[in-house]
Amino acid sequence: MPVLQSYIAGQWLGETPAKALPSAINGDTIAHTHEETIDFAQVVDYGRSTGVKSLLALDFQQRAAILKELAIYIQQRKAELYDISYHTGCTRADSWIDIDGGFGTLFTYASTGRKELPSGNVAHEGPVAQLGKDNHFTGTHILVPRRGVSVHINAFNFPIWGMLEKFAPAFLAGMPCIVKPATATSYVTEAAVRVINDSGLLPEGALQLIIGGTGDLLDRLEEQDFVTFTGSADTALKLKSHPNIMARSIPFNAEADSLNSAIMAPDVTPEDEEFDIFAKEVVKEMTAKAGQKCTAIRRVMVPAEHLDALADRIKQRLSKISVGDPKEEGVRMGALSSSDQLRDVHEAIDRLLETSECVFGKDSSLKPVGTGVENGAFIAPHLLINRNPLEDGGAHDIEAFGPVATLMPYNGIDEALTLAAKGKGSLVTTLTTKNPAIAAEMIPVLAAQHGRLQILDAEAAKESTGHGSPLPILKHGGPGRAGGGEELGGIRAVHHYLQRTAIQGSPTMVAAVTREYVRGAKVIENDVHPFRRHFDDLQVGESLLTHRRTVTEADIVNFGCLSGDHFYMHFDDIAARKTQFGQRIAHGYFVLSAAAGLFVYPGESPVLANYGLDTLRFIAPVAPGDTIRARLTCKRKIDQGRTSPEGHPQGVVMWDVAVTNQDDELVASYDILTLVAKRQ
């Protein structure tokens, strides 16, 4: 049997077998951990020196491009990962969540980075605040790489996705990652790291892998480092209270298993489509990954009058679930990840039965489908009912991390909310209702104690990704028992790994640091129109102050006729006099269009396309007789390495536009985004 190896300081370590890791399907040994001791001083030193240096030699945009290439590479090699994932007890659909979900997250963060992060390694988190009366002193926030290592301690249930959903934002943020997977399924993580390493795409030191224990790793971390954990609430507490983590205020993010709920609202009856949708969702969450998901439904709240009907509906569906070797035709639920996990789940079920009754699973004589599965970690789905759920304990405190859910009857919305709160915080709760008013009443209350809320009805069910599916663009994490942390959430996850710092200074100095033009900073003016300059030559701060244009009544009438906008403020002199403006004013969009006419270079130029406006504000009215002019300034450049369909290189330029009147008062302000060609 192979010996799993750690990947430390650019080398694979481990030749002597230690702990045997069995297949969840048949109990045969798949691999061994290694006996060799890891030098954790070397691990962190290598990450902080080589890893940080090589990552910060790249910028946000370049690292985002690597993530995309890596996602493509893993996708091309995913078949071999499916083969080894099978031994964790996964069906094909279960492995899809872990493997395709893993490289899918890389794709998402590659896109997020390209769209939302600048070139360079300083991200400006505006807006800029004017701190002095005459705008000589300003303040804002920047986000910069922490220049430390990020330690990721992962759970056994998602050995690939669990690694990559943490790695992607940390890598974008410029932090080398030290990954410690749960031992039981570490053979899958090791296989994935070998694929990643084979790609040759990652900078040196960007990723290290620990097989086995963490030794004195946490003792060696420093203030610039970061720790994330996924697993049980008890282990999260133990790690979070580690003396070195507390003494050095090392950021710690926990995503812990929680007692997630599904609530059927009082308006749903057995005759409704939503009733069956709800039952289907519960069964799916019980059986996907054999219930081994931190987001799985553990507590099911149902109106008391529909308890028996829902129990029957769920049992009908569970009776059709075939358990056994995932390679056998018709098998819909595989095994738990290990015999240790099987023992833990049985023990938890026994404790739950002190307050509940089992209505499906306990008395069944499970015969897993397949040959040679006698030593596999198989278990039947278990449906329990707690008929006195307002009492503390039981399913409100005990989690069986497997295909186990407990039904709980309630009377009235307030009681349902009380039951949900007894879980002391969760990652996700689903509310099934047909009535928007009920959703509007319950969701704000539930939101205080649950990290994600799914509102499920017949319409949403057509495209819903499901109760148990964290999405890269949405926050994953929850309060209380769920750990109090946050992962994913799009760009938010990247920001978690960056250091946020307030800076103060003159507009010119703030602009120099942020590499982004700040209103009031010194500008660069020359004889060449900014639109005539290629992306490579254009400098942040290059500016054009246009000639003037006096707005006439004819302008307003013509624009109104052209656009069809005959709003009274533009055409009814009597009505306009009664308003705070005291007179007719020009259309805001006329001012916008007139400004474009003032600053646009009409001839052929490197500017390829205008694809959007941001932060548009009409600040002061423009009346007939007012004279306007515009200042166009290069605010930000993002070199995304894009090419057009013809293969021409280009970048994104954001321009600051300030439109002023004859008294130099700001009347309109906005940013425009353009694609600008690079020099060939």
UniProtKB/TrEMBL annotation:
Protein name (Swiss-Prot/TrEMBL): Phenylacetic acid degradation bifunctional protein PaaZ
Residues annotated as domain Aldehyde dehydrogenase: 51-500
Transmembrane domains' residue ranges: none
Residue ranges of every copy of the MaoC-like domain listed in the record: 540-641
Keywords: Oxidoreductase
Name of the encoding gene: paaZ
